[in-house]
Write a structure and sequence with these properties.
The structure holds two protein chains of two kinds.
Chain A lengths: L4 E8 L17 H16 L8 E5 L10 H8 L8 E4 L5 H14 L5 E8 L6 H8 L16 H16 L3 H15 L13 H5 L3 E3 L2 E2 L9 E9 H7 L3 E11 L16 H14 L8 E4 L4 H10 L8 H6 L16 H4 L7 H13 L13 E8 L4 E10 L1
Helix pairs in contact in A: 6-10
Chain B lengths: L4 E3 L15 H8 L4 E5 L5 E2 L14 E5 L3 E10 L12 E8 L3 E7 L8 E9 L2 E8 H4 L1
Classes of the chains: A alpha/beta, B mainly beta.
Chain lengths: 397, 140
Amino acid sequence: MGENVVLLGGAATPVGKMQGIASDGTQQLEHEVLAKLVVEALEDAGLRKCDVGSMIFTLPRPYTQQKYFATFMANYMRLPCEGLVMEVLGNGMTPALTLQTAIDQVRLGRTKVALALGINFETGTSAPEHMMSSMRATGDVDFHVPFGFTPIAWYAMDAVRYMHEYNVTREEIAMVAVKNRRHAADNPIAQFRKPMTLDDVLAQRPIVEPLGLFEVPGRGDGAVCIVVASEDVARESGKPFVRVKGEGFYHEGAHQISEVPNDMIAFEAANIAGAKAYSNAGITPGDVDLAEIYAPCTIVEILAAEALGLCSRGQGAGQAASGETALGGRIPICTSGGLLSRGHPAYVTALYNYFELMEQLRGRAGARQVRNAELGLACTELGNYNAAMVHILEAVA
Amino acid sequence: MTIPVETAPGVRPYPPRMSAFTKPFWDGVAAGLFRTSQCDTCHKPSFPPKPVCPHCWSNAVSWIDLTGRGTLYSATTIHAGPAVFAADLPYRVGIVDLPEGLRLATRVLDDSALDEAVELVALIHDDGPLYGARRLSDHG
């Protein structure tokens, strides 16, 4: 492997409602929001426009008015590029593939600096209408969708199976939402920051049983830009940075469910991708100081943490409930507040996760700072964790 | 071996497409048969039925009849759904493991429990067939 690749700078908008509709009079425009973030991220990285040679975008939602967004932005920012300018799609893994493509551009020597960036506008569309599209991405259109499966229904079935096999209570699972809300209270860009109790979570109306409203993701808009660079550029910049120390990817060759019965809640893809990333980084799960896990529902954080070796099999819920995965605990998970409280603008969500690790590993996380954080793990998925992508990031003083 | 065939009200909210290849499957459901494709080379069955074996990538496959029975692996009741399913809310869906070594996902028509024996039922709507699963002891 060639030269080290690093994350040198970043910028992100608060997660929330940004997208407007025609009757609003004036609206936020996707390119205006993102262009400002690019400038902010470059400033954070200590670089100039002429340093950037590639832009890898997350694909905007279909509700975003401007199409061919990558090439539109190349014009809007008037940036000639020798590295790739493109858009990436891979469901929830979209931003992870975006970052990986930017990393690969730098590693291949196509450019010294690449941007991994994107904007997710979707709040102008109602949830029932949005699900008309998302249900077709998380199931077989002819053999799943006709029965009414929704994206999070698959996670709910993970929860039901997990409770059945390991005698876990719904209360233990729901504690993940309480824990993540506590983390979000100290994150200025989080969407949901109002404190809440376990009783608050349990009192919500059911969405996909046993999960209620506060255990499934809210909907939000968001935008992030991350500056990916070669380590020599980073050293010249004089700025603190975060090294990409390990990478792992695995697709189990299944979509939502394996047609050959397997242990669905083992999250095999996360297990294998994690093992590859640990090996690539030369570390073990016990070396990780904090993790940002892509988990649209409470149960998903538990199962992914188990698959990644951060929690023991069948005990992830109990360990979350007892505070082991909270700030100050053995292995803080989702210090940003995670998808449930930081927010889940899906096609850019993982970019927010990398941004949180960058803040933590550069010692800029304020009240939610993990002390002496040196190694952070990010894990992203698609489907029902049918594929997983894991990055190990390392603080460089 | 046949599966029960019952009439279901109205049209299917999101009808599956039918290809020349999958037509025998849907015709089978309408007639109370739950079929799928099996590879002529490695002899593994596949579901949904496919013209190519996903295991060995042979394109020689034949139709076999499944028992239409299995066990419930997991299930959930959906309270917030896509626009076209609004009239069905709340509804239960689940994952069923078949003794032939296959796993599928479908509607669950009752409150059957995890690991309980279930049977598939053909549901004949006004515009075509679907299927669901329910406790075997109810009608078995």
